[in-house]
UniProtKB/TrEMBL annotation:
Tree of life domain: Eukaryota
Lineage, highest ranks first: Eukaryota, Fungi, Dikarya, Ascomycota, Pezizomycotina
Annotated PANTHER family: DUF1996 DOMAIN-CONTAINING PROTEIN (PTHR43662:SF4), PTHR43662
Keywords: Signal
Signal peptide: 1-19
Domain called DUF1996: residue spans: 54-271
Protein name as annotated: DUF1996 domain-containing protein
Length: 332
């Protein structure tokens, strides 16, 4: 399946790992394109990796040339037309992150962690899943953000409380916060696996959510930094129920034409040299310069300027007569 994803090279909110240093930074949108490079490497369009490995980074750390992808959210109106849901940056008690689209990335250490090896990649979630019950909501979830301001924090720790696997469907939600938490335990051998998942595992011992990943099982004994994506979808302009499909179908869906059960993220490690390992070891925090690990923060004007052209040129904005699924979707 190929669908629109956001690519970015390159919340835990204070209350869940109080006092815990972690990286938390913005990665703006590099491109919105019909690719999902780990799930469908190289499909139809020429080599995705070489094209996506831009020489700049759209993230606020200069040293982060990792690739991050996730699906794009669309609103569907009662006429069956679609519009891509705008994204906003992220606020909250840990400070405001400025994004041009894209996502916020966290690397959360818990105890001694081993940074990813060169060539490492993995997927969290399943782009084809239609069963909410098949998803552990402490890892992949959505939050109904009743405030129109992302700075006004809503709820508790990521993927806790009333967060849901499904994309919330209520006119009270002015934004929808999406969280994708990756497995933090590695088999210590394989940089990838056939399903892009079995070389990693979620921890055990009741440490769900953005806690750093819990205890690693003996099959996957190596503790990795816990990677988390956070996205703020601004649904304010679509929150009037009078605009929604009258047949009861979901007004908010991902670009695979599926709901929250199919939320997923792709990760390809790409930090320069051993900067991520040093950042974890030295307790580098949030999106600040961290001299001990050689991390340099760059301003939004710089990382927002890093974009690449679509490989599959097509309309992705404004009202569309269908999802950009590879057909000839015309603008309304
Ligand atoms: C969210 O969308 C609404 C409606 O378009 C807009 O007024 C508001 O400024 C947006 N919020 C942010 C934080 O950009």
């Amino acid at each position: 399946m190929k669908h629109l994803s956001i690519a970015a090279t390159a919340a835990i909110l204070a209350q869940n790992v109080a006092g815990q240093a972690m990286l938390r930074f913005a990665c703006s949108q590099l491109v919105v394109d019909r690719v999902d490079p780990i799930v469908n490497p190289g499909m139809l369009y020429t080599p995705i990796f070489t094209r996506l490995w831009s020489t700049c980074t759209s993230c606020s750390f200069v040293e982060d040339l990792s690739n991050y992808w996730t699906a794009v959210m669309f609103f569907k109106n009662k006429e069956g037309q679609y519009q891509r849901v705008p994204q906003v940056g992220n606020g909250g008690p840990q400070g405001k992150l400025i994004n041009n689209g894209g996502l916020d990335v966290y690397y959360i250490p818990s105890g001694k962690t081993t940074a990813f090896a060169k060539g490492f990649r993995m997927i969290a979630g399943d782009a084809g899943n239609t069963q909410d019950s098949a998803v552990d909501k402490s890892n992949i979830c959505h939050r109904c953000w009743t405030s129109t301001n992302e700075d006004q924090f809503i709820g508790g720790a990521p993927c806790s409380g009333s967060d849901t696997v499904a994309i919330p469907k209520s006119p009270t939600c002015k934004m929808i916060r999406q969280t994708i938490i990756f497995p933090a335990c590695w088999d210590g051998k394989n940089l990838d696996s056939v399903d892009h998942k079995t070389h990693v595992a979620y921890g055990t011992g009741g440490f769900g959510g953005a806690s750093g990943g819990g205890n690693c099982p003996t099959s996957h004994p190596v503790k990795l930094p816990q990677v988390m994506f956070e996205l703020m979808w601004n649904v304010t302009e679509f929150s009037d129920q009078g605009l929604w499909p009258s047949d009861g179908s979901d007004p908010f869906i991902y670009s695979m034409d599926l709901g929250g059960s199919a939320a997923h993220g792709d990760y390809v490690f790409g930090w320069k040299d051993d900067t991520l390992q040093r950042a974890m070891d030295q307790g580098c925090n949030l999106n600040h310069d961290c001299a001990g690990a050689g991390l340099h923060y760059q301003a939004p004007e710089l990382y927002n300027a890093c974009t690449i052209p679509q490989q599959a040129p097509e309309e992705v904005d404004g009202w569309l007569q269908g999802l950009p699924m590879g057909g000839s979707i015309v603008k309304v």
